[in-house]
From TrEMBL:
Organism domain of life: Eukaryota
Pfam families xref list: Aminotran_1_2 (PF00155)
Taxonomic path: Eukaryota, Metazoa, Chordata, Craniata, Vertebrata
Protein name: Kynurenine/alpha-aminoadipate aminotransferase, mitochondrial
Alphabetized CDD domains for the sequence: AAT_like
Region annotation Disordered: where it falls in the sequence: 1-116
Biased composition (Low complexity): 25-38, 74-85
BP-aspect Gene Ontology terms: 2-oxoglutarate metabolic process; glutamate metabolic process; kynurenine metabolic process
Domain Aminotransferase class I/classII large, first and last residues per copy: 185-533
SUPFAM superfamilies registered for this protein in UniProt: PLP-dependent transferases (SSF53383)
Family in the record: Belongs to the class-I pyridoxal-phosphate-dependent aminotransferase family.
Cofactor(s) needed by this chain: pyridoxal 5'-phosphate
Amino acid sequence: MGEPCVPRLLHRIGVQTRSAERNRPAFTAALPAATAPAAAPPPRSQLRRPGPGPRRPRSAEGAAPGDAHRPARRPGAAPAPVGAGTERAGPHMPSSAGSRRCPLRPPPLPAPRRPADMNYSRFITTVSAARKASPIRLLTELMQKSPPSLISLAGGAPNPNVFPFKRATVAIGHGTAVEIGEDLMKRALQYSASAGIPELLSWLKDFQRNLHNPPTANYSPEQGQMEVCVTTGSQEGLCKVFEMLINPGDNILLDAPTYSGTLAALRPLGCNIINVPSDQHGIIPKALKEILSTWSSEDVKNHSHHLPKFLYTIPNGCNPTGNSLTTERKKEIYQLARKYDFLIIEDDPYYFLQFEKPWAPTFLSMDVDGRVIRTDSFSKILSSGLRIGFLTGPKPLIDRVILHIQVSTMHTSTFTQIMISQLLQQWGEKGFLEHIDRVVEFYRTQRDAMLIAADKWLKDLAEWYPPAAGMFLWIKIKGVSDTQQLIMEKALQKEVLLVPGGAFNIDSSEPSSYVRASFSLSSPGQMDLAFKRLADLIKEAL
Ligand SMILES: Cc1ncc(COP(=O)(O)O)c(C=O)c1O
C-alpha cells in the first residue's frame, strides 16, 4: 500500500474530510516500550493499589434491584420503542439513523488548546508494570529484521524444512486466490513477532490512520502515539487490556446489558462495575455526568484511586442490544473522560457492519489526549475461526499488552496473519472496503427480514428498536418479567432458541424481560417460523 490517502478513504465510507487540528502535546514520560529493555516499575506512589472501597459500590454480582443497570426503565431515558401501539420507521429507516449521519466535526465544546498530560503509569496494575521484555523474543524479532547474510546460531526456532505442509492455495472467489508458496509457507509455519508480522502491521497502521485519522498518529511515542498490535481475536486484546488496567476494588464504567464475554473477563478481576444508563442511541451522557459528579475536582487533581479507570462501551450495533452511540454523545463522553481522566475502551467489532453511511466517527478519531484503546475484529467480516483482530491505542499501553502476549500466546498464528495479509495486500484498502459493502448488504437484508418477521408475529407481544448496525435484535417481551425460564425450559420444546437477556446483565441472576435474536445465520423463512413459535410460546406463558 502506498502513501496514506485520508480524504479518499474517508470519502469511501461517506465522510467529508476536515482539516484535523493537530495540537502537539506535552505528555508526561510514559512506560518502557515492549521492544526495549523494561525499566523498573514506576514508583509505588504512581502504582494503583486496591483502595479501601469504592464511593459507589456496585459489585459485579451484588447490584441492588432498581439500581443504575436497568437503563431501559429509567424515566426519560428512551423514547418509546417499536412494538404494539407505537409507530416505527420502516426497516430501511433505522430510528437512530438521523442522528448518526453527521459527518466528522470538531467537538461541540471549546476545542482543547492542548491535550492532557497523560500519566499512563497511573492506570496500570503492579503486575503489568512489572512485565519485562523476554530476551528470547527480542532476539527472534531482531533476527527477523536482519539481512539473509546473517548466520544466527541464536534462535531456538525449529527448522521448517521438517514440517509436512509445503504450500497452499486458498480460493477467495471471483476466480482469484491467496497463494502461499514454499518460502512463504516456511515463514507461515514459524514463530514470529509478538506485535504481529511486519507487513500486516504496517497495512493495519496505514488503514487505521486513513480510516480514523487519529490525532495521536503523529505524536511521539511517550506522548501516546497511536500504536497497533495484532491479537488472537479482539477478545484476546480486551482480556489483556482489562488485566493490564484492573486492580481488585477499582471502579470501572460500562453500559450493561453488554457482551457476556466482557463481563466474564471482568468479573474475576474483582472490580466494581458501575452501570451507565443507555438507550437505543447508546450511553446517555447526562446519566454518565451524574454518576461522575460523585467525584470532586479534588479527587481528579489528586488522582484519587477511587476515580473510574475506564469506560468500556460497544459503540456500534452493541451485542446484545443493537444500540449505536451517536456522534454527539461520543463527543460529550470524550469530554467527560478528559474531565475525570479515565480511559475509553472502544470495543467495536460491528463497526464494519453499519447499515448507513457515513459511518459514525470513532472515539479513536477524537482522541487528542491518547486515552482511547480500540479493539477491532476481523471475525464478522473475514473469519471468526482464524482468530484475528487488532488493538489500537497509545503506544505506552499497547506495549504493555505486547509484553503480556510475549509470555502467553507469543503471537497470533503466523499462518493466519500471512493469509490475512496476503488477502489485504491483494485487495488493497479499496478492495477490502468493497468486500465490506457486500457484507453490509447481506446483513442489512437479513435485518430487514427479521424486522418483517417480528412485525408479523410479535407486534402485540413485544417491543424492539431496529438496529443501525450489527447482527442482533434485542426484544422486550411484554408481561414476562424474566425470560430465563421461558427460553431455557420451554423454548426448546417449541424448537426455537434465543438468548435470555439476563446473560448480559452485570449480575446475571437479575431478571430480564429481554431476549437476543441474531439475524446472521437464519434464512427469512426460518426467521418467520422462529418468531411464530416464539409468539405461541409467549401467549402460552401469559
Ligand atoms: C462486543 C464483542 N466484543 C468482542 C467480541 C470477540 O470477538 P473476536 O472474535 O474478535 O474475539 C465479540 C464477539 O462476538 C463481541 O460481540
